[in-house]
Fold:
Amino acid sequence: IPDLIHRWGMDWQAGDHILLTDCEHQGVIAAVEEIARRFQLEVSTCPIQATLNQGDPTAVIAQHLQPRTRLVVLSHLLWNTGQVLPLKEIVEVCHNYSASSQPVRVLVDAAQSVGSLPLNLTELEVDFYAFTGHKWWCGAAGLGGLYIRSEVFESIYPTFMGWRSIITGETGQPEGLQPNGKRFEVATSAYPLSIALRSAIAIHQQWGSSQVRYEQICQLSEYLWQGLSQLDMVRCLATSPPKSGLVSFVLTNGQSHEQLVHSLEKRGFLLRTLHNPNCIRACVHYFTTTSEIDQLIEAIVS
Amino acid sequence: IPDLIHRWGMDWQAGDHILLTDCEHQGVIAAVEEIARRFQLEVSTCPIQATLNQGDPTAVIAQHLQPRTRLVVLSHLLWNTGQVLPLKEIVEVCHNYSASSQPVRVLVDAAQSVGSLPLNLTELEVDFYAFTGHKWWCGAAGLGGLYIRSEVFESIYPTFMGWRSIITGETGQPEGLQPNGKRFEVATSAYPLSIALRSAIAIHQQWGSSQVRYEQICQLSEYLWQGLSQLDMVRCLATSPPKSGLVSFVLTNGQSHEQLVHSLEKRGFLLRTLHNPNCIRACVHYFTTTSEIDQLIEAIVS
Structure:
């Protein structure tokens, strides 16, 4: 949810432009299209998917900025191909885009990156970074978070407001917004979920730092990628080891992706099919074992 | 949150008017003011507080409708005085208001009424009825619900959208909204809280029907109201027994409301002060006991 909050909160003018990539989740696309419908905005999509193995995603984005572009919406870690975008470079290009009279903000769908990549958001200088707690953090379903860069904080209004967003005067009437992030809180929060997420994060931290966990994820996904690459019936989308825990591949023997995923599920392996590109996606976390990966490879072959 | 969702979702035009009552919660006022700021709407407030003991709230609202009124925002059960508004009558007046070229919708803040009043929303013909699960239902914090009358459903767009709101085509791209209430779901929901609320409701139902529980609430609040009314130092706001579990009163002996509430809290009684009107509010549920009420009265006196 939080990534959507600020999209309504921007001071949109008819004709403003939002740039999406061709790798965004359908939920993000739907949300952007609704904002566009409501405020008569232009939306376009740039071809980033083809840069998985060659090409420069930053250059693609740079080429698709327009004088009326006010927001670029992209994922730090692409949910379909597992590619990690060079976020710092992209943000620099957007922030330095001089053809626009208004700043070009960068909103990141961090669904796959929070809890899997080591992050330094102030160094990345990203404007908005929205995540969910139930994916890589393995928190309880239903809680997410939104980071807003302090420089843009004052230009954004909360879409939703409630008694926690505001300062009240002596008569109990609203007298203004809270000076800090509280203005984005509405009313009674989901405290049980918040405590669950904090506990989940604390458990992950016991295993090792985010850098150490990320390196372990990459080692394991490389192990899986190599195992898959050795199969005649499989072609991995990435031609080099993935830099994330997402390993996407296609079957080259004519077998249906749905059928394989279904039969793997019966044996306890949870993979998923994707439409764009048409592939199967496996996912390893730092706590996945090489033995589990070996068993998956065997199950795919048999 | 849900009561705010649809306010953004209406097709607002600059100059449209929202009517509030003077008994709404500051969080609701702040949300309405933000919508007004965003879409250049007019907001006005009608004096319903004074109808607690005499006068007709429906007539007050009828007098304050304007040709550009599109939404009336009020509480079914006023959080400050405990008054129950005649919702069916009010809705009828709003829906039959002929000076407006557009329908006047009624949005109800049901924070105090859901879980305490017996309800038949289709009979009430209310357009929007938004509640929270943690108050009278005693559910886990962080979950609410929104009822939308089927007749207005198609004219409302979700403010927030995600993969659960939409129908996707064969390529996984959004192709439209879900035909039912799913369009107001965004993405992964707070399932743990949802299950907690359902369990809480099931436990309440074991005690008796909503009608039976409401009658018990009224009996107990009358008992409290009578006890308070017999004290020289206290004046209850209502001059007849409350029709809800909220019993508001003022101290007539010059003692500070804050001080009394604070000293009661130390003895295990949780009451609260209110600013408008300036009073103390006690609250009884169906499971409150007369013995607890006796102890509260004693604690106030001593």
